[in-house]
Amino acid sequence: MSVLAGKVALVTGASRGVGAAIANALADEGAAVVVNYLRSGELAEEVAGGIRGRGGRAVAHQADVTDEAAVKGMVQRTAEEFGPVDVLVNNALPDYRFDPVGRKDFGSVGWGDFLQQLGGLKGALHCSQAVVPGMVEGGGGRILSILSNLINNPVVPYHDYTTAKSALLGFSRNLAAELGPHNITVNMVAGGLIDETDASAPTTEEVRQLVAASTPLRRLGTPEDLARAVLMFASPWSDFVTGQYITCDGGLVMA
């Protein structure tokens, strides 16, 4: 039997890249999946349609995760369509471009840039608050968030992005401490440079080669690499693991 048979998963920002890979991985292990998107409706429908075409259950749902009412509506629709959410993956990322040349340095980055990136934390808050009551009532659940290995090794100092990801780490560990008695685990996956997503497209070839050469496995990560790490935390294999994060970057960061 598939390890997530009978489970319901909500993946935010799942129309493409890492989010789409996560949605596919969870669906292929038996979960019914809600493919959340903000603007890329056609792509999200392709992801959901591909899952259905393989015999799985999936729907695409538009919602701005920074909008509390929109999130509540999405979770309600999920319950009506499939049942309460068992697995939440906070993947949605405010618009960002990993551009080592055009990035804002410390002298030019502003507070507004930090606030914009903290939108990811705001989305995680809204989504988590919306699904936790159903998880408590159902006797447990899984909450996963996507971090970045830059929080430990800022090989390129993306000040606003990395700070927001660090805040998500603190958020998740507090949540793990409070929700543990309800059999709800809260874990994280910190990815490295992913080849290739829309966000990483501006990364120069020089930086790509430098990172790959510095990585013990001598390559960059793929969306599927992160998806498999998320699957581990979403499955019963990690029943007794909470408040933790795994760095999925081929060994670049060993801490």
Topology:
Layout: E1 8-11, H1 17-28, E2 32-37, H2 41-53, E3 58-62, H3 68-81, E4 87-90, H4 111-117, H5 119-138, E5 141-148, H6 159-179, E6 184-191, H7 205-214, H8 223-234, E7 245-248
Parallel strand pairs: 1-2, 1-4, 2-3, 4-5, 5-6, 6-7
Helix pairs in contact: 1-2, 1-8, 3-5, 4-6, 5-6
Describe it.
The chain is globular. A 7-stranded parallel β-sheet has the order 3-2-1-4-5-6-7, with helices on both faces. It has 8 helices and 7 strands. Helix 4 (111-117) packs across helix 6 and helix 5 (119-138) runs parallel beside helix 6 (159-179). The chain is of the alpha/beta class and 255 residues long.
Summarize the structure.
The chain is an alpha/beta fold and 255 residues long. Helices cover 43% and strands 15% of the residues. The protein has a 7-stranded parallel β-sheet with strand order 3-2-1-4-5-6-7, sandwiched between helices.
Count the beta strands.
7
**CATH superfamily placement:** NAD(P)-binding Rossmann-like Domain
Task: Please describe the biggest sheet, giving its number of strands, its sense, and whether it closes into a barrel.
Answer: 7 strands, parallel
Mean pLDDT over the residues: 94
The fraction of residues assigned to DSSP E strands is 15-25%
Oligomer: single chain
* Structural class by secondary-structure content: alpha/beta
Stretches where pLDDT is under 50 for at least 5 consecutive residues are none
Percent range for helical residues? 40-55%
- Which value, in Å, is the CA radius of gyration? 17 Å
The name of the CATH architecture is 3-Layer(aba) Sandwich
Terminal residue distance: 35 Å
- What topology, given as strand order, has the largest sheet? 3-2-1-4-5-6-7
CATH class: Alpha Beta
What's the tally of helices? 8
The tally of domains stands at 1
